[in-house]
Write a structure and sequence with these properties.
The complex is a heterodimer of chains A (224) and B (262). Chain A is mainly α. Chain A has a single domain, classed as Methane Monooxygenase Hydroxylase, Chain G, domain 1 (Up-down Bundle), CATH 1.20.58. Helix content of chain A is 83%, strand content 0%. Chain A is built from six helices and no strands. In chain A, helix 1 runs antiparallel to helix 2 and helix 4 packs parallel to helix 6. Chain A is elongated and about 65 Å long. Chain A starts with a helix and ends in a 14-residue tail after the last helix. The relative contact order of chain A is 0.14. In chain B, 33% of the residues lie in helices and 25% in strands. In chain B, the strands form two sheets. Chain B has a seven-stranded mixed beta sheet with strand order 1-12-11-5-10-9-8, sandwiched between helices. In chain B, strands 2, 3, 4, 6 and 7 form a five-stranded antiparallel beta sheet that branches. In chain B, a hairpin with a 2-residue loop joins strand 2 and strand 3. The longest helix of chain B has 14 residues. Chain B is globular and about 55 Å long. The termini of chain B are close together. Classes of the chains: A mainly alpha (224), B alpha/beta (262). At the A-B interface, helix 2 of A face helix 7 and helix 8 of B.
Chain lengths: 224, 262
């Protein structure tokens, strides 16, 4: 016989999964819209952002009620805290997806730098894969993949730095690309930040499994 | 200690239907007044917890609902059940107690077999056929069947405390009441048995309205839909449990549930 706690925890788990699916879709669509210059798709992402926000609010309410009413302890407590913190990062990832979509609208029609767009497509693929991997890990609350995620994020950070240099060189070679270039700078920065949020998700999984609070990106996490 | 205005209260207007309601219910032990003008409505098929310190009047109130205070205390005001004020001398008190059952703090099975604990009250009511089915049905509803089905003829007194309490729940529901009153049903039990009773309550509320007095606030928070907070004989707050334990409306409630009393 499932207890009232187990039933409510299952609902919380479902809410998190739904939120993860939505955000994953947002990231896929926003980056695709940017790479393909697809204004229509970008608008879809912008319109969907409020759904993610309301999902987060719903999940927060569920988690707070579980803590206040069911007094979870030990692994039950850690699971709820992990979902609660992870939902906040997921919401931020959704926000970033929205901003990337808005950049699609802003950059439309301006001269481009083809080489840079190729690299952005590559970073995008990387970020999408990281997000898929971490959301998969949340379905079983298995933190095994966490160090690998942190390693992947370091690659994103490296791409960010090299791409920034390439963008500056692109503007010098052809000043007419300045509008697109400012957009590229914004988008690679957002992708880098999404990588950091994904690392946070990995850290919460470690907390969930072991109770340890760790900083996986302590060495080279936040970039200027 | 802060002084509280006992005349101020917050009574959440829950959606009906209601299994039982009280209007201006006062209970007096001699000259001592134990509850003051309690006006509560208990939603059907929901669990309502009554909480409050010792002497707050919650158990007195509960016992009034199926007339267990008859001969002990003077009860004034209305207790409306199915459109009838059952707080009247002319009302058949045994019929009231059949329809509004009670489970007490300490398990009190009869010194008979497990089977007879359920069958005996039914026989007393004149039921002669289908007894075995009703015994099984009641034990299943109280989540005890799987543990006792192969030893129904053994003494109920050999069961553990938690099992005995579930047997008492089974006995109470065997006569098909509509409302189940529970007076601190788990306070004499260990945490595992308590959780089993709480889980059983969640199943039972599909068919019954449950009103439970508990000293254990965590239990009220975990397992009830609505909570009434009693203080010095007054109902201070009736609210959805999710609201009462996260954003109580009355300062007295806040201080009590957060342990800032006294």
């Amino acid at each position: 016989m499932a207890t009232i706690f187990e039933n409510r925890l299952e609902k919380l788990r479902q809410s998190f999964t739904e939120m993860g699916v939505d955000v994953s879709e947002q990231i896929y669509q926003s980056t695709k819209s940017y790479i393909d210059h697809d204004v229509k798709l970008a608008q879809t992402v912008i319109d969907g952002d409020s759904d993610v926000n309301s999902n987060e609010t719903k999940l927060e309410k569920q988690a707070m009620n579980l803590i206040a009413l069911q007094q979870p302890v030990a692994s039950d407590f850690r699971i709820i805290i992990s979902y609660l913190k992870a939902a906040s990062d997921l919401e931020r990832i959704g926000d970033n997806a929205g901003t990337i979509a808005r950049e699609t609208l802003r950059a439309k029609g301006n001269p481009r730098i083809a080489d840079v767009e190729t690299v952005i497509a590559k970073i995008t693929k990387h970020v999408r894969k990281m997000l898929e991997q971490i959301l998969d890990a949340y379905t079983t609350l298995d933190a095994t993949i966490a160090p690998e995620i942190a390693q992947e994020d370091r690659k994103i950070d490296h791409y960010y730095q090299t791409t920034r240099t390439a963008i500056t060189e692109g503007i010098l070679a052809n000043p007419e690309t300045a509008v697109a270039a400012s957009s590229y700078l914004m988008v690679i920065r957002l992708l880098e930040r999404i990588g950091d949020h994904i690392v946070n998700l990995a850290e919460y999984l470690i907390y969930c499994e072991t109770g340890k609070i760790v900083e996986l990106d302590a060495d080279d996490g936040h970039l200027d | 200690m802060a002084s509280y205005n006992l005349d101020e209260s917050y009574l959440y207007q829950a959606a009906g239907p209601f299994a039982i309601t009280t209007q201006d219910l006062n209970v007096y032990y001699g000259n001592h007044q134990a509850t003051f003008n309690a006006n509560l409505k208990f939603p059907s098929n929901r669990i309502t917890a009554l909480i409050g310190a010792s002497g707050s009047g919650k158990s007195t109130f509960l016992r009034s609902l199926n007339r267990l205070n008859d001969g002990i205390a003077r009860v004034t005001g209305k207790i409306e059940y199915q459109g009838i004020d059952i707080n009247q001398a002319a009302v058949n008190v045994y019929e009231v107690r059949r329809r509004i059952g009670m489970v007490f703090q300490h398990p009190n099975p009869f010194a008979k077999s497990i089977y007879e604990n359920i069958a005996f009250p039914l026989k007393q009511l004149g039921m002669t056929s289908d007894l075995s089915n009703r015994v099984e049905e009641s034990l299943r509803a109280a989540a005890l069947w799987d543990e006792v089905h192969d030893k129904l003829q053994e003494s109920a007194l050999d069961l553990s405390g938690g099992q005995q309490q579930r047997l008492c729940i089974a006995r109470a529901i065997a006569v098909k009441p509509e409302i189940l009153l529970m007076d601190e049903p788990t306070s004499a039990l260990d945490p595992i048995s308590s959780r089993k009773i709480e889980a059983t309550m969640q199943q039972l509320k599909k068919d019954y309205t449950i009103i439970i007095v508990t000293h254990n606030m965590q239990q009220a928070a975990r397992s009830s839909d609505f909570t009434a907070f009693f203080h010095l004989g007054h109902v201070i707050e009736f609210n959805k449990t999710s609201h009462l334990f996260t954003t109580p409306r009355m300062p007295t409630t806040e201080d009590y549930i957060s342990g800032h009393f006294g």
